[in-house]
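Lab channel / #folding
Pinned by the channel admin:
"Please post every new chain as: sequence first, then the structure tokens as a reply. Keep commentary short and put observations after the output so the thread stays searchable."

First post following the new format, from NK:
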Amino acid sequence: MKKTIYFLFFLSGISGLIYEIVWVRMLSRILGNTTIAITVILAVYMSGLALGSFYFGDKLTRYKKHLKLYGWLELGIGLSALIISLTLPWSWDIYQYIYTITGPSAYWAVAVRNISLFIYILVPTILMGGTLPVLSAFFVRQYRSLGHTVSLLYGLNTLGAVAGVLLSSYVTLGFIGEIRTVIIGVIINIVVGFIALGMSRTVLHPDTQTSTASHPPSKDEQPLSVSSRAGNIVLLIILVSGMTALAYEVIWSRQLLLYLDTSIYAFATTLAIFLFGISAGSIGISYVIKRLKDPVALMGMFQIGIGIFSYANLYLFIFFDNPAVKNIVNEYIASIIILLPITLLFGATFPLAVIMYRHARIAGASSVGRVYAVNTVGNITGSFLASFLFIPIIGSGISIIVLGSINLVLGVCMIYFLTPRPLKQRIMYALMLLLPLGIVILLKQDPFLTVLAQRVRRFAGRFNAPYRIFLNTEGLQGTVTALQTGYTKHLWINGHGITGLVTDTKLMMHLPLMLSHNPENVLVIGFGMGTATKSAVAHRNLAITVVEIVPEVYQCFTFYHPGAEFIFNLPNCDFEIDDGRNFLYRNNKQFDTIVLDPSPPIWSSGTVNLYSREFFDLCKANMSPTGIMCLWIPSNTLEDEVMSILKSYHTVFPHTLVLSGITGGGYYCLGSRSPIPFDHKKISSYLARPEIHHDMIEFNRLCTTAEDVEALFMWDSDTIGSLTEPFPMVTDDFPYTEFPIWRHPLYHRKTWYHEKQRAYRKEKFGGN
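Reply from TO:
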């Protein structure tokens, strides 16, 4: 029976992470794909876990049939998760109603939004939080075993979470979509629930008069050297440890973007390694926990080990970026080497904290609920500190030093004050407090920014050109690097190139304006280098709204466009810091033109939210009846991805035109409710205006006449409809383009788009 229950709890871990990943995706589309929004979402999720763990752990004395209760918890999780997942996509109507009453900037509207979110997902998360203490109570009552049991339960459930991350991120979300992925989790919960209920009928309940919350340690467990003083502060210790654990995870997720990439797989891999280490550490400690006599000393040593490994990782991070090392150790192995040792120690910490608290307080299964709840509160605190304080203010490298120092001091204090040790040993441990100071002295600069600077040098070396870095800084949303190699300027976000100074970006703005009828206002989603916005300023009476999710990008504008800083003071220009989709949810005016240039590549995590049918519907709802939207698709996108995006776009905008980029770097997709007049005279007249002509020749003279624009024409609405018919649409539920790992090996990057472009141009205009 024990093995069966362990397996059931492993399965439960799969469903728990499936829900977390899918709900974060759903809610980020409503609340915004910003660091603030995602941190709040995760905090709300973990708050439910903490409440559930504390409540059920504290009320275990009321229940006798714990396995039966566990079965009902699993059924409740599955049913409530299904209801929430089916209704969550529509909750944005409620938030939109709140915004119409309060206005988009009202602080209390944000508070109401977050409180309603908390209430919305409260039921399943509380039930999830209750499963570990309830099962622990079952094992205490049946087998008089807590330490070994908690280690295995916690470890196996976390191992299930690893499977849930990999299953959803690498397989199901890309193949069957979000709702069907949730249904897999629901089926798991329901099956686990019914099996547990069936097993509960065959369970005898010994010692029914004795509270499971106060069982003394079992005879097979060694008497532990845990003072009441250590027990009193164990909750504080696990709070601090939990805080540092989640802070590390947030910071490593940012740092490892340089090793992996910006795809959903990078996040999934980092999370899977992190959870696997915790799982292995918890399972590993289960084999020695019965024979353990001094958990305080061991836990203190683990904290010291975490601190030392965190320092070492700063140097490993730079070491693994060396090209010679990369030839031997790939990015994924490097990530494992960096993450695994520390996470193993974190995984072993939780069971140790449980038995320390249990023996000091003579508490049984209730100790599991309290320790887990406090650990989760620490997790929430750590995620907030890392996201809003550590990374944007002191940087990820110094943050790691601070966190490592906290772990080191915590471990030394535990050993020094809470364990009987000879004076020499105490002095030795105390001297280890000097280690952080030595690290700070030896570390001359932030290793994360150092790696970025090294990559800039190697990048410039490819062109045998001098280079300079204008800005290299970490912010709330990402790390921005503005650089110049030779005469070429570049913009990097999280170490990946985003855009350059090209006429293609100017035409992104001019195309919808030249084909519109007296446009009065324009919305730019994605500031980038500011080229499209600068082109819009050429229209003196045009009201311009710019939305950018990474605020540090605005600081780089004068580097890319010297002398143009005046646009930030123009009365007709409004610069917002927000997620583009969330901005449109809150917007209450109509735009004549919307220009959208999502950060490449299209499979970057979260970018699909700007390519889905629902997002295009949202854009249309924020456009005037004759308004035109211009969407840019990079040319390194595979054919099936382009066609899927175009199908979603054309479904929303019945009148759609596709033009090639000037240098073949991508596609302009123009969409409108009304027919788009591709008129030679109108285009020629527009380009002849002095201010427009001056703007178009800033970088080169590749597109200065109506003939140049017409030569870019590829497909009209009828052609798009026939070309895209065999392909699936990109929707919120089916984020096809974000999960390319199983599709990219099946396709080859050929110049199919150029061939089709030439064929269509010849048919439409004649000639070559």
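NK: The first strand starts at residue 467 and ends at 474.
TO: also worth noting, The CA atoms of residues 413 and 537 lie 61 Å apart.
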